[in-house]
């Protein structure tokens, strides 16, 4: 079964770049790595997904090294509304079970 | 476009009672997932459906949990009987399928077992 680790919490100030890393081993070699944002009393909301190297969309970038044993979510200029819990999601190497990371609680301060 | 709909949003029951949660996925999404999320933790997959077929239910405690997805659209997750430890948020997600297979989540049902 895939194992994932993330920092429990991070603090940042408005306007700064934030990088959150998820370490994951025993993941499927042919599936995407996905990141979600979750606010209290809501379901996880899709942010970005990638397979390898770098992916960028209008809200974030995702960096995945060649060995795919980690991935880093980059939020370019955070605002107070980015205060949330961020999760990585991977598929285990048996190709059956989707595994969420434990989540990183990001607090953005004014 | 409507998102994943779940009901009820909140449910409080006494232990040993039965409870059911309902999920309506995004229209056209063939894959449906049920997750359990304990407080302060990431969601854990319980069961995954491809149309009507449960393709992965290895994490579903089958002695008390059951699920069905009749006609390959809506799904129901049932617990009978509920235990104190079942208090959690139950999330439903759906995806189109295919290479990217992004999962979209509903708001969840918060279950409290007294």
Task: Report what the structure shows.
The complex is a heterodimer of chains A (110) and B (114). Chain A is built from no helices and eleven strands. Chain A is mainly beta and 110 residues long. In chain A, strands 2, 4, 5, 9, 10 and 11 form a six-stranded mixed sheet that branches. Chain A has a five-stranded antiparallel sheet with strand order 1-3-8-7-6, with no helix packed on it. The relative contact order of chain A is 0.35. The mean pLDDT of chain A is 93. Chain B is mainly β and 114 residues long. Chain B is 0% helix and 48% strand. Chain B has no helices and eleven strands. Chain B has strands spanning 5-7, 10-13, 19-24, 31-37, 44-50, 53-56, 65-68, 75-79, 88-95, 104-105, 109-113. In chain B, strands 2, 4, 5, 6, 9, 10 and 11 form a seven-stranded mixed sheet that branches. In chain B, strands 1-3-8-7 form a four-stranded antiparallel sheet, with no helix packed on it. In chain B, strand 5 and strand 6 form a beta hairpin. The mean pLDDT of chain B is 93. The A-B interface holds A 4, 32, 34, 36, 41-46, 49, 87, 89, 96-103 and B 4, 33, 35, 40-45, 48, 56, 58-59, 91, 93, 99-108, 110.
